[in-house]
Amino acid sequence: MYEDLTVDEFADVIAEAAEKYRNWGRWGEDDRVGTLNFIDDAKKLEAGRLVKRGASFSLSLELGPNGPQTGFMGRTNPVHTFTQTADDHIHGRQGFPHGVGGSDDVVFMALQCATHWDGLGHIYDRGLAYNGRVANEVVTPAGDLVTGIEHATPLAISRGVLLDIGRAVGGGELEDGFAITEEHILATIEAQGETSRVGRGDIVVVRTGQLERARANGWKGYTGGDAPGFSFSTADWLHRSEIAAIAIDTWGFEVRPYEVRDAFSPLHQVVVTNMGMIIGEMWDPSELAEDCAETGVYDFLLVASPLPFTGAVGAPVSPIAIK
Predict the structure, then answer these.
(1) What letter does residue 305 receive in the DSSP assignment?
(2) Cα distance between residue 309 and residue 199, in whole Å
(3) CA-CA distance, 228 to 208, in Å (whole number)?
(4) Each residue of 227-267: pLDDT tens digit?
(5) Which of 66, 92, 159, 208 could share a disulfide with 174, CB 3.0–4.6 Å?
(6) E strands, the chain, in order
(7) Coil, strand, or helix at residue 272?
(8) Which burial class, exposed, middle or buried, applies to 23 when counting CB atoms under 10 A from its CB (0-12, 13-18, 19+)?
(9) pLDDT, tens digit, 9 for 90 and up, residues 14-26
(10) Smallest Cα–Cα separation from 16: which of 266, 191, 245?
């Protein structure tokens, strides 16, 4: 669809899509959370009523030294160390009374090193951040002063819908470089049935199968390498569906290589900055997908609050699907 365009020609396509799908001002000039506004109290109540069995599924990777990061874009796996240990207790170095002791630990990590949300301050479009604000007046060395991820923390709770595109379209998983189009999305919904119908305020979770493949075969290439992902053309569906957010099991959400040579994150540019939608990456829906396939139920209560790091442009999340 876009393969024959030069990156300069594609820039015009991106600018047109940005204008067409822009939500700036839709929820007021002071808005900080974009499409999370679609999640109202009624939506949360609807989501709560989906819990029938009490079964819960973690959709997150462990935060450990053997994670997917290889240093690409300066991101590393968490470095976990201790400031006090049981050894300090045993050898009397803590000085606490009546025989009590303990351990304490700290961690250094890139906030987007594992399962995370991309916040609204993460991506810019020609000098502007979400809602038309000047980018360097929003995100400064002191952090995101306007749309910091902490504003999303109480809101990212809604009806979740799993779209197992890997299973429905790819026979189990999608190959690297597979561009997911609206046709593939709709075919998956049709194959999965009524519980995967997507509507306003839903949070969509997409399984391509790439994460499971990378975990089995080694993480090399998973971060920053070729991957299945969304075609730029899905911007229309993402806007029209009025979903609150979307998450996927790949590193970068979009198909890689990009559909236009020398492009970089063009769909992020439209979805995050102009639509005002947070994007989840490196989510792990593998166990949930097995349950959904077995039960035929693809919707659930999703609790996916990012850790409220003040002024962060992205944050780890430990999403839990409850059915």
Answers:
(1) P
(2) 29
(3) 7
(4) 999 999 999 999 999 999 999 999 999 999 999 999 999 99
(5) 208
(6) 56-58, 79-84, 104-108, 116-118, 128-129, 133-134, 139-140, 143-144, 157-163, 179-180, 203-206, 229-230, 245-248, 279-281, 299-303, 314-316, 320-322
(7) helix
(8) middle
(9) 999 999 999 999 9
(10) 266
**DSSP code string of 84-149:** E-HHHHHTT-S--STT----EEEEE--TTSSSEEE-TTS--BTTEEGGGEEHHHHEETTEESSS-G
Amino acid residing at 131: N
Q: How many Cβ atoms are within 10 Å of 174's Cβ, its own excluded?
A: 26
- SS3 state at 190: helix
Domain 7-73+110-322: homologous superfamily in CATH: Putative cyclase (3.50.30.50)
What amino acid is encoded at 185 in this protein?
Answer: I
CATH 3.50.30.50 location in the chain: 7-73+110-322
